[in-house]
């Protein structure tokens, strides 16, 4: 490869490293052109797969400020550059490797942190971002529904009380004016009235007796 071509290849790889939130290094020895095409399709729309030269890739990674990949850059190498959900790409690589064992996932990076091949396989076992967001949305919706139920419960109880009062008022309108539904002044029972009147009649007699007794004491 001529020097200008090498420089262009390094610049292109460096741009891919900078634009990717995850990269996965693989060994593709033994894969046919058709299988490589199928592998690219299995990665989804947020990842690209490129056969690379190890030396140029090391230079490009250094220019992009990326470290930790040199140990994986040996033998026939190809890199999956991921610009979206890394779980989707990891699943595609894992599933393809199951059907085509000649593909070897060597390692990579996720948001600048190094990952081994085993860790990338574990990443593939996680749920995708879309699934996690859907579950989160479902959990939030359930929480909101629970909150609405909690807020509505006292209101429903209040509404039932108001409706009961309304029906009661239709039966007896005076309830709204402190009538039948409101305790009225307590009247003395009818049988107690004569006793009260007798007590009233006895009061002047008692006063007269007291006055007579006082007069006698003064005269004595």
TrEMBL record:
<dbReference type="InterPro" id="IPR022973">
    <property type="entry name" value="Ribosomal_uL10_bac"/>
</dbReference>
<comment type="function">
    <text>Forms part of the ribosomal stalk, playing a central role in the interaction of the ribosome with GTP-bound translation factors.</text>
</comment>
<feature type="region of interest" description="Disordered">
    <location>
        <begin position="172"/>
        <end position="220"/>
    </location>
</feature>
<dbReference type="InterPro" id="IPR043141">
    <property type="entry name" value="Ribosomal_uL10-like_sf"/>
</dbReference>
<comment type="similarity">
    <text>Belongs to the universal ribosomal protein uL10 family.</text>
</comment>
<keyword id="KW-0694">RNA-binding</keyword>
<feature type="compositionally biased region" description="Low complexity">
    <location>
        <begin position="182"/>
        <end position="220"/>
    </location>
</feature>
<dbReference type="Pfam" id="PF00466">
    <property type="entry name" value="Ribosomal_L10"/>
</dbReference>
<comment type="subunit">
    <text>Part of the ribosomal stalk of the 50S ribosomal subunit. The N-terminus interacts with L11 and the large rRNA to form the base of the stalk. The C-terminus forms an elongated spine to which L12 dimers bind in a sequential fashion forming a multimeric L10(L12)X complex.</text>
</comment>
<dbReference type="GO" id="GO:0003735">
    <property type="term" value="F:structural constituent of ribosome"/>
</dbReference>
<dbReference type="InterPro" id="IPR002363">
    <property type="entry name" value="Ribosomal_uL10_CS_bac"/>
</dbReference>
<keyword id="KW-0689">Ribosomal protein</keyword>
<keyword id="KW-0687">Ribonucleoprotein</keyword>
<dbReference type="InterPro" id="IPR047865">
    <property type="entry name" value="Ribosomal_uL10_bac_type"/>
</dbReference>
<keyword id="KW-0699">rRNA-binding</keyword>
<dbReference type="InterPro" id="IPR001790">
    <property type="entry name" value="Ribosomal_uL10"/>
</dbReference>
<dbReference type="GO" id="GO:0006412">
    <property type="term" value="P:translation"/>
</dbReference>
<protein>
    <recommendedName>
        <fullName>Large ribosomal subunit protein uL10</fullName>
    </recommendedName>
</protein>
<dbReference type="GO" id="GO:0070180">
    <property type="term" value="F:large ribosomal subunit rRNA binding"/>
</dbReference>
<dbReference type="GO" id="GO:0015934">
    <property type="term" value="C:large ribosomal subunit"/>
</dbReference>
């Amino acid at each position: 490869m001529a020097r200008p071509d090498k420089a262009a290849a390094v610049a292109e790889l460096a741009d891919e490293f900078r634009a990717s939130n995850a990269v996965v290094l693989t060994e593709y020895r033994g894969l046919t052109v058709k299988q490589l095409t199928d592998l690219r399709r299995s990665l989804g729309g947020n990842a690209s797969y490129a056969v690379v030269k190890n030396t140029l890739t090391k230079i490009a990674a250094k220019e992009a400020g990326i470290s930790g990949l040199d140990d994986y850059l040996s033998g026939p190498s190809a890199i999956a550059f991921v610009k979206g959900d890394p779980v989707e790409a990891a699943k595609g690589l894992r599933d393809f490797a199951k059907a085509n064992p000649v593909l070897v996932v060597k390692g990579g990076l996720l948001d600048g942190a190094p990952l081994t091949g085993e860790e990338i396989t574990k990443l593939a076992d996680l749920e995708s971002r879309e699934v996690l967001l859907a579950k989160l949305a479902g959990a939030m919706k359930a929480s909101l529904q629970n909150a609405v139920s909690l807020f509505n419960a006292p209101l429903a109880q209040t509404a039932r009380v108001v409706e009961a009062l309304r029906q009661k008022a239709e039966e007896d309108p005076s309830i709204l004016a402190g009538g039948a539904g409101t305790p009225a002044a307590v009247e003395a029972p009818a049988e107690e009235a004569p006793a009260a009147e007798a007590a009233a009649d006895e009061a002047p007699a008692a006063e007269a007796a007291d006055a007579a007794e006082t007069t006698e004491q003064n005269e004595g």
